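Worked Example 4.2. Consider the chain below.
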Amino acid sequence: MTETASCRRVAILTHTGRGEAVRAATRLIEGLNAAGIVCALPREDVADLGVEGALVEQLPLADGGAASVSDFELLVVLGGDGTILRGAEWVVESETPLLGVNLGHVGFLAEAESSELDLICRSIIDRSYRVEERLTIDVSIRAGSPDRADGDPDRGGRDDEDAEVIWSSFAVNEVSIEKGARERMLEVVAEVDDRPLSRWACDGVLVATPTGSTAYAFSAGGPIIWPGVEALLLLPLSAHALFARPMVLGPSSHVVIELLEHSATDGVVWCDGRRSVPLERGQVVHVVQGRHRLKLARLSEAPFSDRLVRKFGLRVEGWRGSARLAPVLEPVGGEPRAG
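Applying the procedure from the previous section yields the following structure tokens:
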């Protein structure tokens, strides 16, 4: 059966606490409705936006605040990275791509700005966007075995591999293990691919994705990793150690962080700064490549370097193009030369 515009459905998530987001969402809904596309929003958003009509649906939310959007062709999120990360929780286990519209500050996860609503609306109507997949990470907390209590570097692999999983979640940007008491330091031992790597007295440890390399990990001194690179980033935070450099790991690496029994404080595990759980001394955090990929809708073919320049306001004055783009270069104070 041929799909018609009347049965097309798009889900919309808005940061309704921002007037600009409310106005942008209202305009977008009007434009999509005019093309016969149904827009579905959480019940409270429908009330906050004041939209109604035959082509506006209420999107039921589960107890945790997430919505099932697997039956929608697209989820459009209007807000900053925090709102987009909330939207990622809705779509990560589905085939539905997410299109982020930035109304925050840097907005690295967003594809477009609110000033580009006409382009956004037309791209959705025409389906003239491409889908880019991003690596995620899965995290679990398990009880440590008695053999691990002293952080013995010669124990030879994980004794807790079959231990009961106490808590599990996922992250798009990063998993952070942070200290529970501000005035104390965590004492942890890090393990990669069944072998001990290092022991740190530190404020915390990050395991980030390439997507997350421009977020918390960037602020903590980590490298920027291009989104197309398959990798994990391991980064100790303010470690009192000679070896405490950011490390880029293979995508299939299994990272284990054990909070030692004699640590001066318990810890907290955060996923994307949104979901957290206490980490007790002796417990072990396992981080691996995620089972699911986040699908992001892209409107532009511009390279990631252009995104860096735009988002960070990097200075590029004086660039005169590569040989491929500018075959003739003007030297300073001289004759033109071949590129």
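The CA atoms of residues 153 and 196 lie 6 Å apart. The chain is about 15% helix and 35% strand. Compare this with Example 4.1 before moving on.
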